[in-house]
Every structure is written in C-alpha cells, then in structure tokens.
C-alpha cells in the first residue's frame, strides 16, 4: 500500500515545504502516529467502561453511552471548521494546542463528580480529537522524502486503526484493575507524552494554504467522494451502534465477568491489527472489493453474536472476526477518499473526519435508544442492518479507480 499511497500524495502536489528528512522524518511521523492513537483512544474509552462509569455517575448505560455520542458529534463539527479557522497558523503550534485541550478533557473526565461535568469534559475531548486528527492527516507527507510519503501516511492513519481495536481493550483492563477514572488519567498522561513529543520532534510547519469552509464543502459534489463518505458513515454507525454496548451484551449473553470481557476485547484488538494491514494492502488495489468483504464480515458477525455468543469460546471466535473486519474500516475508507480526490488531501480528510466521528456519535445514540427501549441485545440487529446499508452503497455507488502500480 505504501507505494500506492505515495502516488496519491505526489499527485496532490505536496512536494513542497518538507523539512530536512534526516533531521525530522520518522521521529516526527512517530509523534503524529502516537497522537492519532491517543485522540481516538480518548474518544472511545467509554465503550469498555460503560457499566462502572454509569453506576458511579448515577445514570443508566444508555445515558452513559451519550459520552461517546457527544464527543463524536463535537469532533464531527469541529474538524472541518478548524482547518479554515487555523488559517496560516504554524501546524506544530496548532497541534500542541489541540493536544493540550485533549489532555484537559481527559483530566476533567477522570475527576468528574457528576454527569454534567463529564459531558463538559467530553466536549473538550471532542474538540481536541477532531482538530488533531484533521491537522495530522496532512503532515506526514511533509516530514519524509517523496518515496516514503505513502508509508508515513499509512502509519499516521494506522494509529487511528490501532486505537479503534486496541484502545478500548487497554482501557477496559485498566478500568477493571484500578477503576474507570484511572483509564482517563492514563489517557491524559499519554496526551502529555504526545504534547512533548510533538514539540520536540516536529519542525515548524507553516500552513501550505488557507482553505475556506465553502471550498471544503464543495468537494462533496464529486460522486466518488460522496459514495466513500456514505460507505464510511454506514459502516461506522453500524459498528458503534453495536460496539458501544458490547460489554453489557457480552455480560448478558456470555455471562462472563469484567476480566473475561477484557480478554475478549483483547482478542478483538489483536485481530483488528491484522485487519488493518490486510485492508490497507487490498484497498489500494480495489477499494470496492475490500469494503464489500469488510461489510460482509461485519454484518454476519454482529448479527450472530446474540445467537452464538453464549459459549465463551464461540464469543471469542466472533469477537476475532469482528476485529478482523472493523480493523480495516478506517484505512480502507480513507484510501477510497484519497483515491477519489487526490488533489485535495487536507480538505477531503477533514470531511472524512467529520463523517467518521458523526457516525460514531450517531451509532452510539442509536444504540443507546435501542438498548434503553428494547434491550441491549437488540443493538446487534440494529448494527447489522446499518452495515448492510454500507454493502448496498458500496456495490451500487461510484468507486474511484485503483491506484497505479
């Protein structure tokens, strides 16, 4: 995939404004990757902590799930707006400021004495997350030589994929051992590491050009981009409608405790790492085929969990299949977006961030309504139906041409 992504970046005219690669290259890319991992992990921490967090804050699980909805919604609104608002600001300075906002949000979540304070803290997390993701998306190509641009970009987006499949299990384990507040404290500490790393390892990164909000929105006229954004929306909404409530579902269906649930989520995470790299290689060759495979795996797995997950062994198999499928969603849909409009990388990425996080918010909200209104196991059917919508859109919509050899 690295070679294919390099061609995408070169076609966007991003050769200019790279600092000296020998001085700033891969350490700076590593800082960006840790940054994307940290912001997405921070966003999704409530997934594995819903039960103890809701009990401590005095709200039901469906209401506790709104902490994910709020963060995703704020990130969706802030990402496309922040790129124009940052204007000509140095991107290293902007990135550090946004990470500081994220750290403040995680500290507030760890301290929150009540649900209102938790909501305010999660708003800060959403602002920091949406901004960091949008800014970091276009920086890797400026840190390394042209021949390494694809590999660097893949690593930065790999941080997002790895957070999706590893951040929740890690937070769940820590929450079981030290309490749910400790998980947010750990996320704040990781954010401080990112802040220091970005300040030390990134060079000054002047904005390449200011993009008005109207110019960002006009990109949606391209039918290939519209299709890719719709597919991402359906997949992520369906996934989070189900995955936000995977802990109570596993508790009800499988009857296991917190430690075993952490182990099941770890199985999911390990499989997701493999899915991230498999999808990255396949998406550059054929984004449509790759996403059809991903959607089929997700729909079947999510639908089957309430029926076949009664055995811990079968639940582990299903969670592994789920991780394998969802692990490839972010890299496959991002590849589709870059192939659709390779000459507008930063603007298209901000739209992708908006759709992705809006879908997280919508999925968590839909799952909460179903969980509170019908029951937690019904969220699996809801998720599977939404993923089926992604399959139809992928098959019927207009796809971009695969990257050249």
TrEMBL record:
Q: Where is the composition biased (Polar residues)?
A: 1-12
- Membrane topology reported for the UniProt record: Multi-pass membrane protein
Molecular-function GO terms, alphabetical: transmembrane transporter activity
Residue numbers spanned by region Disordered: 1-22
The entry's keywords: Cell membrane, Membrane, Transmembrane, Transmembrane helix
Query: Major facilitator superfamily (MFS) profile domain location, by residue?
Result: 28-401
GO CC annotation, single: plasma membrane
Transmembrane region positions? 25-42, 62-83, 95-113, 119-143, 155-176, 182-202, 227-246, 258-279, 291-308, 314-339, 351-371, 377-397
Q: Where does the record say this protein resides?
A: Cell membrane
Q: Predominant location of this chain?
A: membrane
Q: Which PANTHER family match?
A: CHLORAMPHENICOL EFFLUX PUMP RV0191, PURINE EFFLUX PUMP PBUE
In Swiss-Prot or TrEMBL terms, this protein is called Permease of the major facilitator superfamily
Species this protein is from: Streptomyces griseus subsp. griseus (strain JCM 4626 / CBS 651.72 / NBRC 13350 / KCC S-0626 / ISP 5235)
